[in-house]
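G., the chain you wanted modeled:
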Amino acid sequence: MSQRDIVAIFSALLFLALIALAVTAIKRRAQKQLAIGNLTPIDAISGAIVAEALGFYVSTVFAAKPLERLVSHGLLHRGKAELVVRADGIQVSRLGETSFGIATSAITNVSRASATIDRGVEQSGLLAISWTLGETEVTTNFRLDAADDTQAFFEKLSQFKGIGAGK
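Predicted structure as tokens:
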């Protein structure tokens, strides 16, 4: 075996060890975050439809630590999503990931944002919904499709059930 082969094998083993370390760290963090509380099942939100929008689920972060992503409950990965605003809350249907509901009583604020953890967009390009998960306040960010990202949708969402909205 040549020195070149030894370096290649060592590099491959080091790479695999780093991947294993990263996966273990994420699993450990997800396990620790499970104590925060459980997501509301999507079918628990079933009131009359107020508004709908298509777009992308970007992230859920801790309100007190906006650079720390919530990884438990399947909230780690971004992807396509549909938001259905109903009289009793918001249904977040995610393609290939965990769908969930946000009850009206849990929502604390609806605002626009330009950035979240690892994602920056144009000014006010993200819809940020702040809500409580258990006793912890979190913020979930969405990037809505241009056709659905209207001021009318934002106003319906932010005034729905008297939620205070920030811009």
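The CA atoms of residues 47 and 87 lie 5 Å apart.

Shout if anything looks off.
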